[in-house]
Amino acid sequence: MKMRIAMWMLMCLPLGLWAQGAWQPGELVLVEGDTLRGMVAKAKGNQFAYKVDRKGERNFFKEEEVVGYTMGDQQFERHVVDVFMGKFPERREVYLEILVDGPVKLFEYTGTGMLGASHTNRFLFHADASMPWRVPPKEGAFRKQVSMYFGDCESITDRIKSKELGYEQLNGIVVLYNSWAIAEAQKEASNIEETPE
Predict the structure, then answer these.
(1) Average pLDDT over residues 24-40
(2) Are 41 and 87 spatial neighbours (Cβ–Cβ below 8 Å)?
(3) pLDDT tens sequence across 122-171
(4) N or C: which end of the chain has fewer CB atoms below 10 A?
(5) What letter would DSSP give residue 118?
(6) What pTM does this model have?
(7) 8 vs 13: CA distance, rounded Å
(8) Is residue 5 pLDDT above 60, yes or no?
(9) Could you tell me which residues are beta bridge partners of residue 188?
(10) What sign has the CA pseudo-torsion 29, 34, 40, 46?
(11) Are strands 89-100 and 133-134 parallel, antiparallel or unpaired?
(12) Beta strand spans in 7-88 (E)
Protein backbone atom coordinates (compact mmCIF):
# COMPACT_ATOMS: atom_id res chain seq x y z
CA MET A 1 0.00 0.00 0.00
CA LYS A 2 2.78 2.43 0.91
CA MET A 3 4.42 1.65 -2.42
CA ARG A 4 1.23 2.57 -4.32
CA ILE A 5 0.93 5.88 -2.47
CA ALA A 6 4.59 6.67 -3.16
CA MET A 7 4.16 5.82 -6.86
CA TRP A 8 1.01 7.96 -7.08
CA MET A 9 2.83 10.90 -5.45
CA LEU A 10 5.77 10.57 -7.84
CA MET A 11 3.40 10.56 -10.81
CA CYS A 12 1.57 13.69 -9.55
CA LEU A 13 4.74 15.65 -8.71
CA PRO A 14 5.34 16.87 -12.27
CA LEU A 15 1.69 18.01 -12.44
CA GLY A 16 2.34 20.48 -9.63
CA LEU A 17 5.24 21.96 -11.55
CA TRP A 18 3.23 22.94 -14.60
CA ALA A 19 -0.39 22.98 -13.52
CA GLN A 20 -0.38 26.68 -12.63
CA GLY A 21 -1.06 27.74 -16.23
CA ALA A 22 -2.92 26.10 -19.07
CA TRP A 23 -0.95 24.94 -22.09
CA GLN A 24 -1.25 27.33 -25.01
CA PRO A 25 0.34 27.54 -28.43
CA GLY A 26 3.31 29.85 -28.12
CA GLU A 27 7.05 30.25 -28.09
CA LEU A 28 9.94 30.85 -25.72
CA VAL A 29 12.85 33.10 -26.70
CA LEU A 30 15.91 31.94 -24.79
CA VAL A 31 18.89 34.01 -23.63
CA GLU A 32 21.11 32.13 -26.09
CA GLY A 33 18.94 33.39 -28.95
CA ASP A 34 17.05 30.17 -29.68
CA THR A 35 13.28 30.36 -30.23
CA LEU A 36 11.27 27.31 -29.23
CA ARG A 37 7.83 27.05 -30.86
CA GLY A 38 5.17 24.69 -29.58
CA MET A 39 3.06 24.54 -26.42
CA VAL A 40 3.92 26.81 -23.48
CA ALA A 41 2.63 27.09 -19.90
CA LYS A 42 3.62 29.16 -16.88
CA ALA A 43 4.90 26.79 -14.21
CA LYS A 44 5.18 27.18 -10.46
CA GLY A 45 8.43 28.47 -9.06
CA ASN A 46 9.02 31.14 -11.75
CA GLN A 47 9.44 28.61 -14.52
CA PHE A 48 8.08 28.01 -17.99
CA ALA A 49 7.03 24.61 -19.24
CA TYR A 50 7.51 23.84 -22.93
CA LYS A 51 6.77 20.94 -25.25
CA VAL A 52 6.90 20.64 -29.02
CA ASP A 53 3.25 19.54 -29.29
CA ARG A 54 0.41 18.39 -27.03
CA LYS A 55 1.91 14.91 -26.64
CA GLY A 56 5.54 16.01 -26.47
CA GLU A 57 7.96 15.68 -23.59
CA ARG A 58 7.87 18.54 -21.08
CA ASN A 59 10.94 20.72 -20.62
CA PHE A 60 11.28 23.38 -17.95
CA PHE A 61 13.08 26.72 -18.20
CA LYS A 62 13.81 29.19 -15.40
CA GLU A 63 12.81 32.84 -15.93
CA GLU A 64 16.51 33.77 -16.14
CA GLU A 65 16.78 31.57 -19.26
CA VAL A 66 13.83 33.22 -21.06
CA VAL A 67 14.04 36.79 -22.47
CA GLY A 68 10.62 36.72 -24.11
CA TYR A 69 7.62 34.52 -24.64
CA THR A 70 4.32 34.27 -26.45
CA MET A 71 1.26 32.49 -25.09
CA GLY A 72 -1.80 32.52 -27.28
CA ASP A 73 -2.11 36.06 -28.64
CA GLN A 74 -0.11 37.73 -25.85
CA GLN A 75 3.59 38.52 -26.31
CA PHE A 76 6.02 39.46 -23.53
CA GLU A 77 9.64 40.67 -23.27
CA ARG A 78 11.80 40.81 -20.14
CA HIS A 79 13.27 44.23 -19.28
CA VAL A 80 14.61 46.14 -16.30
CA VAL A 81 12.18 48.98 -15.57
CA ASP A 82 11.22 51.44 -12.85
CA VAL A 83 7.85 50.20 -11.59
CA PHE A 84 5.61 52.26 -9.33
CA MET A 85 4.15 49.81 -6.82
CA GLY A 86 3.42 52.45 -4.20
CA LYS A 87 4.67 55.99 -3.77
CA PHE A 88 8.17 55.48 -5.09
CA PRO A 89 9.61 53.66 -8.12
CA GLU A 90 11.29 50.33 -7.70
CA ARG A 91 13.73 49.01 -10.30
CA ARG A 92 12.81 45.44 -11.28
CA GLU A 93 13.43 42.96 -14.05
CA VAL A 94 9.97 41.90 -15.19
CA TYR A 95 8.06 40.59 -18.19
CA LEU A 96 6.24 43.37 -20.02
CA GLU A 97 3.32 42.68 -22.32
CA ILE A 98 3.81 44.12 -25.80
CA LEU A 99 0.72 46.18 -26.65
CA VAL A 100 2.15 47.79 -29.81
CA ASP A 101 5.21 46.54 -31.71
CA GLY A 102 7.31 48.56 -34.15
CA PRO A 103 10.13 51.10 -34.14
CA VAL A 104 8.72 52.22 -30.77
CA LYS A 105 7.18 49.51 -28.60
CA LEU A 106 4.44 50.10 -26.07
CA PHE A 107 4.61 47.78 -23.06
CA GLU A 108 2.33 47.25 -20.10
CA TYR A 109 3.11 45.80 -16.69
CA THR A 110 0.51 45.00 -14.04
CA GLY A 111 1.67 43.99 -10.59
CA THR A 112 0.55 43.97 -6.98
CA GLY A 113 1.66 46.83 -4.78
CA MET A 114 2.56 47.09 -1.11
CA LEU A 115 -1.01 46.95 0.17
CA GLY A 116 -2.23 44.35 -2.31
CA ALA A 117 -3.62 46.87 -4.78
CA SER A 118 -3.09 46.26 -8.50
CA HIS A 119 -0.83 48.76 -10.30
CA THR A 120 -0.55 49.16 -14.06
CA ASN A 121 2.47 50.85 -15.60
CA ARG A 122 2.98 51.58 -19.31
CA PHE A 123 6.35 51.96 -20.96
CA LEU A 124 7.72 53.19 -24.28
CA PHE A 125 10.86 51.65 -25.74
CA HIS A 126 12.96 52.07 -28.86
CA ALA A 127 16.08 50.14 -29.82
CA ASP A 128 18.47 53.01 -28.97
CA ALA A 129 17.25 53.26 -25.37
CA SER A 130 18.98 51.53 -22.47
CA MET A 131 15.66 50.62 -20.84
CA PRO A 132 11.94 51.24 -21.35
CA TRP A 133 10.65 54.64 -20.21
CA ARG A 134 7.63 54.75 -17.89
CA VAL A 135 4.81 56.88 -19.28
CA PRO A 136 3.33 59.27 -16.69
CA PRO A 137 -0.46 58.82 -16.52
CA LYS A 138 -1.21 62.30 -15.12
CA GLU A 139 -2.45 64.64 -17.86
CA GLY A 140 0.01 67.53 -17.48
CA ALA A 141 3.12 65.37 -17.15
CA PHE A 142 1.87 63.12 -19.95
CA ARG A 143 1.40 66.00 -22.41
CA LYS A 144 4.79 67.53 -21.69
CA GLN A 145 6.91 64.37 -21.54
CA VAL A 146 5.23 62.35 -24.31
CA SER A 147 5.37 65.39 -26.62
CA MET A 148 9.12 65.49 -26.02
CA TYR A 149 9.43 61.71 -26.55
CA PHE A 150 7.73 61.93 -29.96
CA GLY A 151 9.15 65.40 -30.68
CA ASP A 152 10.43 64.48 -34.15
CA CYS A 153 6.83 64.04 -35.39
CA GLU A 154 5.22 67.47 -35.17
CA SER A 155 1.76 66.31 -36.32
CA ILE A 156 1.49 63.98 -33.30
CA THR A 157 3.00 66.39 -30.75
CA ASP A 158 0.57 69.12 -31.85
CA ARG A 159 -2.36 66.76 -31.24
CA ILE A 160 -0.99 65.80 -27.81
CA LYS A 161 -0.39 69.43 -26.80
CA SER A 162 -3.91 70.42 -27.92
CA LYS A 163 -5.34 67.61 -25.71
CA GLU A 164 -6.82 65.83 -28.72
CA LEU A 165 -4.64 62.83 -27.82
CA GLY A 166 -4.00 61.80 -24.22
CA TYR A 167 -3.03 58.84 -22.04
CA GLU A 168 -6.17 56.92 -23.00
CA GLN A 169 -5.14 57.09 -26.68
CA LEU A 170 -1.53 55.96 -26.03
CA ASN A 171 -1.88 52.80 -28.17
CA GLY A 172 -3.10 54.91 -31.08
CA ILE A 173 -0.32 57.48 -30.58
CA VAL A 174 2.33 54.75 -30.81
CA VAL A 175 0.68 53.22 -33.90
CA LEU A 176 0.57 56.67 -35.57
CA TYR A 177 4.19 57.37 -34.67
CA ASN A 178 5.40 53.98 -35.92
CA SER A 179 3.59 54.49 -39.24
CA TRP A 180 5.18 57.93 -39.56
CA ALA A 181 8.66 56.63 -38.61
CA ILE A 182 8.48 53.77 -41.14
CA ALA A 183 7.33 56.17 -43.90
CA GLU A 184 10.17 58.58 -43.03
CA ALA A 185 12.73 55.76 -43.11
CA GLN A 186 11.42 54.62 -46.52
CA LYS A 187 11.64 58.19 -47.87
CA GLU A 188 15.19 58.50 -46.59
CA ALA A 189 16.15 55.14 -48.12
CA SER A 190 14.67 56.10 -51.50
CA ASN A 191 16.53 59.45 -51.40
CA ILE A 192 19.79 57.60 -50.77
CA GLU A 193 19.10 55.24 -53.71
CA GLU A 194 18.32 58.16 -56.05
CA THR A 195 21.43 60.15 -55.15
CA PRO A 196 24.00 59.78 -57.96
CA GLU A 197 27.51 58.79 -56.96
Answers:
(1) 94
(2) no
(3) 999 998 899 999 999 999 999 999 999 999 999 999 999 999 999 999 99
(4) C
(5) E
(6) 0.80
(7) 9
(8) no
(9) none
(10) negative
(11) unpaired
(12) 24-30, 35-43, 47-51, 59-62, 66-71, 74-84
